Amino acid sequence: MSDKFYTLPKLSFAYDxxxxxxxxxxxxxxxxxxxxxxxxxxNELLNKIDDFRRDGDEIEVNNVASKLSxxxxxxxxxNLFWENLVPPSQFLMPDGEIKDSINSxxxxxxxxxxxxxxCATTIEGSGWSLLTYDVGTGRLMIFPIGNHNLKLVPMQKIxxxxxxxxxAYYIDYKNDKKSYVSNFWKILNWNVVNTRLSK
Length: 199
What we know:
Blueprint: H1 24-55, H2 61-83, H3 96-106, H4 109-121, E1 127-134, E2 140-146, E3 156-163, H5 170-173, H6 177-184, H7 190-198
Helix pairs in contact: 1-2, 3-7
């Protein structure tokens, strides 16, 4: 049996570093309670699978696989989310390859932001808004995904993610999704997005 499990990655900034866009309470609650819960649940399920196999018991494959998919999706998307954030004082406008690609695909940065914002604010229920690079066509694409559904990978390489679950913004913005998304652009780490695209 494997001894490899998921871990909660360290943030590259302090809990209060994204203020006033995201408060310390919002970041800390999101990271330490919600993100960490997906990590713990994933490892719990992996342990359960190991136990089944070691003891020769039959695994309820569909049930375990569904829960594992949900929680690993949560871990993966949260990891990407925290990586693509930067304190407001360090924010830089998009430049280089990502700027050129966005202009080529969407016509302008402003048009891209408008389309991405529309995608994010119209998600029904819980989910995420993604900017991806489509391997098949070389195009940049915007996708809404429900819950943590990552079935579109690997043909879509994820460049940018925005968490649209209520736990990501409710402490600071209540039900005002538009203000949350509008302020997100002030803490987006375009350098990270650019690096993901160049890879």
